[in-house]
tRNA modification GTPase GTPBP3, mitochondrial-like (Limulus polyphemus), 521 residues
Amino acid sequence: MIYFLRGIRLSGSIYGRKIIHQSVQTSEHNWMRCSTSTIYALSSFPGRAAVAVIRVSGPQVIMVLKSLARFKNIPEPRKLFLKKIFDPVNNKMLDRGLVVWFSKPKSFTGEDCCELHIHSGTAVIMSVLQALGKLPKTRPAEPGEFTKRAFLNGKLDLTEVEGIADLLNAETEAQQQQALSQMEGCLYNLYSGWKERLKICLAHVEAFIDFSEDENIEDGILDLTLKSVQSVFNEIENHLADNRRGERLRSGVKVVIVGEPNVGKSSLLNLICQREVAIVSPLSGTTRDVIEAALNIGGYPVLVCDTAGLQETEDLVEQEGVKRAFQRLQQADLIIYVKHCLEFIEQKNIGELVNNIYKPTFLSAVDANNVDSQKNLRSEDAELLKNSEVIVVINKSDLLPEEIIKENLKQKLEKECISCSLISCKTEYGLNSFLSLLQNKIKKLCCDSRTFKPSLTQDRHRFHLVKCQKYLKEYIFEEETDIAIKAEKLRKGLIELGMITGHVCTEEVLDVIFKDFCIGK
Ligand SMILES: Nc1nc2c(ncn2[C@@H]2O[C@H](COP(=O)(O)OP(=O)(O)OP(=O)(O)O)[C@@H](O)[C@H]2O)c(=O)[nH]1
Ligand SMILES: [K+]
Ligand SMILES: [Mg+2]
């Protein structure tokens, strides 16, 4: 047992040399480059308002306090002081405002930071920024540079950085909540938890390599390791099999309205949006291009598209419209398939008809290749279509000859069909129940209400998790007698996890992540 423990410690350091060190080098390199300069930026929205916040970070912060705010002694950190702000060169007074500073490392960036809360007027802001520029070794911050420094100083990992970016971009409540929990470290905890467990596995394997000749190495250590790797593997697999909920919530649910010409697709889009987004007319083939509208439905971000009526046609423009409709269908998370109600009055077995309506129609079209534009649909696209959620909307219920027929049809649909609404865009009959069906579907696509596990939110994470999983799979299942080769698999798996959190990363990855930030964050 003693050797067992010693193995962990020794191997831990071997591990440290190979992976952690790599990241430290990158960080140190950046740290040295950026820590010599002090950066400043307007962190609030530019324009006329009550207050503007200018943020400063770096070694010159004390100098800023002394020369712009004219503190005689270094003030107490984390306290607001009402001060006059002066230009350090011509000694002109520029404004009066609140000044606060944070001493390193207890600040957002991990460096000395200060904030000047001044009046938000164009001239005031410009003059204070210019005054900051007059101090030695100061310069305007690049987009996201404050956050980048926080990352390089170990204040945040990359998933938390991405959480901040998502929070700044969040437009709906559900997006806000997801971004917040990511910023608070839910993904960091999950991924670094796996990393810690794999690190121990690797340490065990390396201990085995180093000490297996030795009598004292614990029996069955490799079996134990295999079990641990297997359980991490299973957890990653579950996390990946989330039907892309988190990514969808982040980027918006894609809803596509399709159906034959003139069934009322554009009318439905306008009703959902509560404005005249698309042209409605009695002429068949009115909509040609895809018409998009971004909406907030029950706190979830949604992109609804109206498309050209699906039919075989000689008209070249309409053919192009049908082709585009099919392209959108392939990307859809949710399809609203609109039908004319008169098709249904004579039908006896409505449930079967409606429940199967969508898939056979499109998939048989795909198989038969009977519309030019559908020739482009490959079999995997057809598979995608099959996986999308569908709501069948039966429109124009006001045209049903008698009230009793309408009620009968409605009852039959409610009893026999899963996702179907009988509505009238003209009278708005059934609209509310359709909208609540739509909202429920969207919610289901974005979050799993049964579990409160953190969702995978980014393609970047998925990419590295899939690669990590591949190495773990090789470790678990491949017949390999050379234990050193097996150890290498674990090491590679660990590197992939490190790439997600940024403990192993390259300058290019950082550039991509920070480029979308605004200046001053
Ligand atoms: N009576 C009745 N007419 C409707 C209803 N919904 C739509 N319409 C009419 O049906 C016609 C076609 O409506 P659109 O919304 O343009 O139909 P579409 O499916 O977008 O048509 P295309 O873009 O040409 O494929 C228009 O004259 C609408 O006013 C409805 O619920 N009841
Ligand atoms: K029309
Ligand atoms: Mg239309």
In short: The chain has three domains: 1-37+154-242+463-521, 38-136, 247-446.
